[in-house]
Amino acid sequence: MRDIHVVILAAGKGTRMKSALPKVLHRVAGLPMIDHVLGAAATLSPRTTTVVIGFSPDAMRAALASHPGLSVVVQEPQLGTGHALLTTEPLLRHATGTLVLLSGDVPLLSPKTLQTLVDRQTASGAAATVITAVVDQPFGYGRVIRSGQSGEQIAKIVEERDATPAEREIREINSGIYAFALDGLFDLARTLTAKTAQGEYYVTDLVARCVEHGRVVTAFTVSDPDEVRGINSRGQLAEVSRIVRNQKTAELMAAGVTIEDPATAYIDRHVTIGADTIIHPGVFLEGLTTIGAGCEIHSGVRIVDSQIGDRVTVLNHCVITDSRVADAARVGPFAHLRNEADVREQARVGNFVEIKKSSLGVGSKANHHAYLGDATIGANVNIGAGTITCNYDGVKKHRTVIEDGAFIGSDTQLVAPVTVGKGAYVGSGSTVRHNVPPGALAVSAGKQRNLEGWADKKKKKLKTEN
């Protein structure tokens, strides 16, 4: 096997995006589009991977920092794709083998297609192999001009603005994705001449240079033109995101997941879902979320970077972020789990309950209108409606501990740090500032008094005043 070196061009601003964010950092199905390209490139096991950046280099470096082993070069000024390739010469001038040139704004290219490109290049011994596609509407793309008796070779690539009327009728387009033999590549690249008044140099001219020097350029035509779709506008970003989502839902349904309305299922590429889970319309599953088997996720739910066990039910309009829900638990409707919330097996979280940095033990219940923050709650605990763990004293956060089998009455405030012991009861309407021993009853409200006739007197007074 020859060495493979990957270069990804990602220097452009993306003017038509009308954004302060570099184009390749806009998200496609939850990931920056360049992350899709890097993921596909990694399947080639390249010896080196280099990303050429330009616009907003600090933002680009920060975004690429999570990818170890990358080399980054800055193209300044940005004088076209040919110039961008030349900026990598200091890193690759002594490299041998194959250089795979990718574009950071073409996120649908599959690992299989990339491997086929490399295999074709290696087998042919050509100076370059170009990925092409045949499309119904080639407007705006460079046209591929073929040569040879059977048209198996490429003579040149003509840009739209330079094409003759006959050449514009050609439907085979250049994808901008190439495999080059590194031997002599940079020598040829240095012979490129500027194509615009701005002094820009283009990789497409390398094809003609190779032919002029008697070297063969071949093509590999993809069967699915969507693979080489580039993104230059917000509209195209939405179209490509839709394609990725459709691919993802098709993959999940083939694996045994029921998705009632794939058109409204927004499921990121790295989400995993077990068989026999049902996804209702209008669900958002994002990031590195995992959902087990036999679950039911109802409409309006958003789950981000969370782990959901088997046989879990999440009712309508819940938000779950960076949290865990264990087997056979039930959440919602209108519940909010965040910041390492940990709902244990068979626990119940009901409507308008928020849990933050807290664990709710096996079989425990918080069914109505509660806030549980920075709390450790044991097994088989009942949390009454309107319960609040008062975890913040204005300076620091403190923890509340509720041990197994405790019963917390409605409208209770637990002022942390505080512990409610095993099997203890807290009466409704109590404010608990001190630890409650196991098995004890804590009450803080005074004895009830009934003032006879008070309501009638109040009504008469109001009537007189009016």
- How many helices in DSSP terms? 10
Classified in CATH, the superfamily of the largest domain is Spore Coat Polysaccharide Biosynthesis Protein SpsA, Chain A
Q: In CATH's first tier, which class of the largest domain applies?
A: Alpha Beta
Helix fraction? Answer: 10-25%
pLDDT < 50 runs, ≥5 residues: none
Number of domains: 2
Instruction: Classify the beta-strand content into a percent band.
Output: 25-35%
Can you summarize the main beta sheet? 16 strands, parallel
Structure class = alpha/beta
Shape: elongated
CATH topology of the largest domain: Spore Coat Polysaccharide Biosynthesis Protein SpsA, Chain A
Distance between the termini: 96 Å
Write down the oligomeric state. single chain
Going by CATH, the architecture of the largest domain would be Alpha-Beta Complex
Rounded radius of gyration (Å): 31 Å
How many beta-strand elements? 39
What are the key terms here?
about 475 residues, alpha/beta, Spore Coat Polysaccharide Biosynthesis Protein SpsA, Chain A, UDP N-Acetylglucosamine Acyltransferase, domain 1, 16-stranded parallel β-sheet, 9-stranded parallel β-sheet, 10 helices, 39 strands, elongated
